[in-house]
Amino acid sequence: MTCEEALKRLFEVVDKEASQYDVEEVQKHLEQCESCMARYEFEYMFKTFVKDKAASPEKIDRLKGRILNRIDEESEGQSIRKMGPFRFTAVAVAAAFALVLCIGAAFWAAGYYRYSVFIHPFEENYFRGEIPVLAANVGDGDFNPCSPEIMQFINNDLSMTFGDVQTAGFNLIGSAFDTIRNHRFVHFRFVRGGMPVSLYVGDKNGVELPGFEEIKIGSRSVYTYHCDGCQMIYWYCGKSILIAVSEDKSLPLPEIIPAVYSI
Amino acid sequence: MKKTKKEIFEKEAMVHVEALHRTALRMTKNENDADDLVQETLLKAYRFWDKFEQGSNCRAWLFKIMTNIFINNYRAKTRSPQVVDLEDVDDDFLFGQLSALGPSDDPERHFFAKVFDDDVKKAIEELPEDFRLVVVLSFLEGFSYQEIADIVGLQIGTVKSRLHRGRKLLQKALWEYAVKNGFIKEAAK
Questions:
Q1: Does residue B175 sit in the same domain as residue B143?
Q2: pLDDT in tens, chain A (263 residues)
Q3: Contact flag B21-A43 (C-beta cutoff 8 Å)
Q4: What residues of chain A, 190 to 219, have a C-beta less than 8 Å from chain B?
Q5: Residue B44 domain-assigned (yes or no)
Q6: What's the burial of B33, exposed, middle or buried (CB within 10 Å: 0-12/13-18/19+)?
Q7: Are the C-beta atoms of residues A183 and A251 closer than 8 Å to each other?
Q8: Three-state DSSP class for A247?
Q9: Is residue B163 part of a domain?
Q10: B100 shares its domain with B35
């Protein structure tokens, strides 16, 4: 097979539409041709890249609840059925989301709203199960996944304790970015039923991460931490804890963030 | 005990809400319309559930319903003819541009790592609608050419050519974002 023939089949092969025979012939060619191999690898990577970037999970639990309610309305007159577990989950999620919005509204008034992200104040065992913890950006409604660096940090290095429940390596599937003074941050806010949340920041084994540094800003303490791909700070703010993570390690987070939040 | 219609529907159809919503967002470009489009799709699917052949491809069936609703109700009422000039865009446009940056610092990997999710979403949303639909169904949802042809109601050849052109447009747009955002310093020509 020539280069021309191999490249002619490029997209069909990448899209898994080529015949077994063509795939094998292309494979033989690629083993001998570095430049075609590079091109094929690139197009494979491009496809995965687009999917990863554009197919991030959206917050749809509320929508699911809404649809099921409409289905119920339409099927009115049928016998009343026991509420299935799925429905229950959807309703619980919707209720929790409403609660988040209420808290959000309160913080809007306080001027925190714009740059805050809530993690839903669910019950403790919510963090135990397989249900992913969702973060909702209440700033602009966007819902973007973290960068791989931050995901890695959250999944590998950060653990949190809610009451006595530890959530080491919990499955945070998303968070939100905001742009503050031309820098992109990912923010999380934790509140639980309006109660103070005790946040433990340490590694998976419950060992406090080395290198956490306490910085006094006025009468308030801010804790900073640097890891491979990013840096983070957290601080207590009323009944919640705010965390800011940035991929830019040179950024003076303790100076910028408190100013933004006027803590 | 025999499962009710709604229980079966939840198990078979509702699990696809997330995928439907993701495509709806890219197609309508706005959350409220996307929510409404998905809701309308599922309600219609529920009403026609008896017509759905159990065991066949539920996901493709739902996407077909959604695509029909989108085409009939959501897309811009007055569509100007889509003129897309791709004369100057080579098949290997993005690959060529990145390769030209030099082999030393792995520009491809750098590019893939740096471009923001938002930029990719925006680039998809800015594709002309005909291309956007097939790109989303192929790239995001992983449908085969034949499935896309069935969903959108096109010949398989048309799907292929739209996907090919859509892919080129997407690569060109992403390259332009990367240059604009300064992730890539365009090689001096």
A1: yes
A2: 888 999 888 999 999 899 999 989 998 998 898 888 888 888 888 888 888 888 766 677 788 888 888 888 776 644 333 333 333 333 334 333 333 333 333 333 332 222 222 232 222 222 222 222 323 222 222 334 445 555 555 445 444 433 333 333 333 333 333 333 333 344 344 333 333 233 334 333 334 444 567 777 666 677 776 655 556 666 654 434 455 655 556 666 666 655 544 44
A3: no
A4: none
A5: yes
A6: middle
A7: yes
A8: coil
A9: yes
A10: no
Please say whether the beta carbons of B5 and B49 come within 8 A: yes
B contact test, residue of A3, A48, A53 with most B CBs within 10 A: A53
- Residue B90, classed as helix, strand or coil, is coil
* Residue B37 shares a structural domain with residue B107: no
Is the separation of the CB atoms in A84 and A100 below 8 Å? no
Contacts with A103 (C-beta within 8 Å, 6 or more apart), sequence order: A118, A121, A191, A194
Residue B32, judged by CB atoms within 10 A of its CB (0-12, 13-18, 19+), counts as exposed
ipTM of this complex? 0.85
CATH number (domain holding residue B130) = 1.10.10.10
